[in-house]
Amino acid sequence: MYTRLLIAPLACLVLAVSAFAQPMAPAPDAPLRNAALRMKDKDYRGVRDELRTVPPSPERTFLDGVAARRLEQWPEASELLGAAAQDLPLLADYALFWQAEALMAAARYDEAGEALQRLVGTWPESPTLRKARMLLADALFARKEYRQALASYIRFIELYPSGTDSVTATLKAALCREGLDDPRRAVQELRAIWLAYPASPVAETAEQELKRLEALGFPAVPPTPDELLKRGTTLYNLGKYERALAVFSAIPSKEQPAAFNDRVALKTGETLLKLRRYKDAARTFSGLIEREPKREIADEARFLLARAQDKAGNDDEAFLGFLKLTESAPSSEFADNALLEAAFVRKFQGRYADQLAVLEKLLTTYPGTKLKPRALWEAAWARYNTGDYRSAAESFRLLTASADYRERALYWHGRSLQRMGEEAVARQSLAMLAEEFPFSFYTFTATAPAPQEEAMPLIVHDPRQIIAPPAGHERARALIAMGLHDQARSELSIARKNGSLRGKGLLGIARLYLEMDDYSSAAAALRGEQPRRMDGDTATTWGLLYPRGFSESVAAEANRHTIPEELIFGLIKAESGFSPVALSPVGAVGLMQLMPSTAKGMVNGSSTSTGISLRLTDPAFNVGLGVRHLKDLLKQYNGNVVSAVAAYNAGSRPVDRWRRSLAGLREDEFIENIPYYETREYVKKVLTFAEIYRRLYRPAAPALALLPPVSAPEPPQPAPTNNAPPTAALASPPEASALTAPVRQQP
Asked: Which range is the signal sequence, renumbered to this chain (predicted)?
């Protein structure tokens, strides 16, 4: 569709794009390039200043119009973008859409509608099409052409049934009803929006419109208790726990059936549990149980009560609660899970023999449970922790048949055999591990290669210097050249979804992503798995999967704080995938995912600094604070990388608690026993990434495992069992990684 637009007058644009895409040679039109860099940084006033010295061209007009629009200079923006739509056909759809936005903001609705009609009719494959259709309906609404607007909104909802804009279209359609003298229908539809989309900002607008219509004499039917319960449950399922609790608390219980009130109480307790208000949750569940609800409600309440008690630190009480549930309701859907939870309580009390007894009861009583693989894994570990290494080895061997557990089971089967002194058999298991999972955490932990002083890095060039710029993709290349990276990503996303790209085509797409420092998308463009070997043939793929993004900042901070740069790269890859604007669900920002409150305290010793979230999207600023925070954690844990990385994810308090409860374990054992699944896998991931970075870029450097561990005396060995001879507890073999060195937490 777009190739027919590549006419001769655009030759200068193609040349400019090629110049911008090549990082090796500066573009001859430096002012235009400088304006594009300003656009990339969203410095729109700077864009216009730079363009004052640029000779007239379609590209200059386009950039000037985009900047004017961002500065809300509507008359200038609409004029410039209108001209660009004529003179720069390669990107005319973008120019028309942004011109229409400027015209709408200037209340020139007729002209906006004309531009949008032209866009929709001429560019049916444009990435702006969805927004253009919505804006066209808005233009009709603004002109008070409610019947046509209603039809446009309904058509939009049919074409795009999901998404915030679809909900907005539903709200606008309701307001069209009011414009067509049907306010009661409008009230019904607004009420439905408020109930169905409680987490959407559109629901708040719907509520305001309902209040306005009520003041005009058209009140909505009050929500029923059932509707409120459904609304609160929707908020709960979306993770909006505070708002869900407010809804549940507002549901009237008077004159409601007991079964309904029990359901509300159960959801209230669940929400309190999610909010970590464990004592309040326990009181809620206890009160519900005292009312003797139906069996299915009572069973779930007992299970959740025990979980709340466990979370509140009342572990023995929780243990008894879990067991009582299985005894009083052995056929309950929660009974098998209750036994597993009871086993976890004993595990984290260090009572491994008791843990094993509970797990064996679970496996005997519920042989068909879906929890069987997890229970078998935990039982194997309970045997290992009691010193029954022979039984543990057999249990791990059986688990190697499970695809989900094979990798770690091979490792721990080998380690169990080493504990018994059966080194030859252990080597077979660990060799199989290395063959099947060559670049895994467990393989790296099993054998730590010595630094290779003469070794050369596998990757010595930036992939941008190796991968040729792709043929085609003129629109994406033009947008990249002009600093419009969000739009370029949309173009490349369309190309990737096409599914026809292979080999060099995918590498070309990756190259374009790298031009925007979009490392995660460049890696994703490969659509393949990690190579199974490291050599010259796979170097480019490894370089894309494990980039040294923002290397200047990383190298500077690594030198300043004497931290291996591969650890920093590993953290960044795990935390954000090298996205400077990454934002977590809890509000962590940037490359190293720092909380704004933490960053504020690091900047000026208080939490009053303003604009910190925006500053955290700057790579140099974020890496500077992130590495400083990592250095503080390394100091806190006397250089122990495992503790520092775990604390980076979960915080120091849990790590201190785990070091106390898991005292005396080797580092690999400690990692495998970290209670938080997310933190356990995070530590493995970061250490694995760091080792891969070391092998790719700094093979002469020592492995991270060689950093000083926390010093400690050798922990006492567990007493031998009938199946484990006194010689079972042996030290790690010489070739074992230093990750397995004995450690003790700080006093």
From this structure: 1-21
